[in-house]
Amino acid sequence: MLSVSLFFSSSSSSHLLFLSKTLTKRTCFSSLATMSINLNAHAFAGNPIRSKTLTAHDPLSPSSAFQSLKTHLLQNPETTSLPPPPKSPLFKVLPFRKGRPLASSSITGNNDDDVPSWHLGWISLPDCKYFLGKCGMDLTEDSLVYLGSKIEDDVVYWAVDVSGESRLVPELGSKQFCFVELRTLMVATDWSDSIAMGELAIAGHARALLEWHNLSRFCGHCGEKTIPKEAGRRKQCSNESCKKRIYPRVDPVVIMLVIDRENDRALLGRQSRFVPRMWSCLAGFIEPGESLEEAVRRETYEEAGIEVGEVVYHSSQPWPVGPSSIPCQLMVGFFAFAKSLEINVDKEELEDAQWHSREDVRKALAVAEYKKAQKTTAAKVDQMCKGVEKGQSLSADFNVESGELAPMFFPGPFAIAHHLISTWANQDVPTDGVKAGSKQPSSSILNL
């Protein structure tokens, strides 16, 4: 089965900032000894404009906002003096091009060492209509996808795919906007900045929806075209005799740190596309008719030949930055305890897999300069938005203080793999922890 990578590749940065949420029966993990991360949500989770359950008559609800949107789009300020619809909210639009959200960058402060921060490139509905009109493209209600709202600001947020219009790039670039890979924005995000983390979650949600729309243009049952419904939150077959409902797709994936309890070691793997010295957890898609625990055991045996017994749940988070054919993966993290120790690597899945001692893992975590990588990428995004893109290999940032290469390193603190590894390395994983599927009261949930 296909193995899933959540890490840096040699061509792009694909680390994910992950907030460690650990469920236990009696014990909640303490803060990590080598990290000083205090987050409220995982990367790509904690979306601040995620659609709430609003009544159909609420002006910010998908149905009401969509009707108001249609009225706005029909109006031409140059030829009509019609007032806007009553109780009409403010609309903001986030354009995407080939899966890349529109972004800008700014530096707050006057010091030379101030790090730039990126922002989503929200534009008003009239401006979006104007920019597209200049390029000969009409903005229609069916091209916009409802993302959510902020009740306190009376704002509704939308996303639109403008991949077919290349003339927008210089048009928006002249205003220091740039379409940036979501993976790059992910690495550039300051994980201690809750606002930046919220914008990353919004961008991830939007990309997943737009990629799903591109994949679901035709009905899988009868082959007829599909049409958007509920402000783009679902689709429906246009065939009157079919009318099949189609909902956004989520693909569940297990990712696990396999532990040799007797010898105090953890199993880490490498894929051929990893940058040198990069190691991480094993991972793979869940198959139909399979439980989470079964998927952990099967994937571990298929990839490394290791038999797994006990499986303990750690946490989960959405992953909308995979290939466009997989709009959004749901990563489900586990600790898995080995029953056998002899490694037999499937070379089609992994380049290598090895046991690593807790001491070696701790040393690697201590010397890797994760914050430096984040700042470097933030500076790169700033250069891109200013039209002066500079190439940068992020693997060069994972060095020891002397400037020498670190012997090995792992995904940064924006990745679920990092938190599985660092949690084990810095504290004991309880053997009586909650196993996947166990019922647990909400009071046992701890946000690290």
From TrEMBL:
A GO BP annotation: NAD+ catabolic process
Coiled coil: none
First-level EC class: hydrolase
Organism domain of life: Eukaryota
Pfam family, one: NUDIX
Domain Nudix hydrolase: start-end pairs: 248-378
GO cellular component, as recorded: cytosol; peroxisome
GO MF annotation list: metal ion binding; NADH pyrophosphatase activity
Keywords recorded for this protein, A-Z: Hydrolase, Magnesium, Metal-binding, NAD
NCBIfam families found in the cross-reference section: PRK00241.1
Protein name: NAD(+) diphosphatase
Species this chain originates from: Gossypium tomentosum
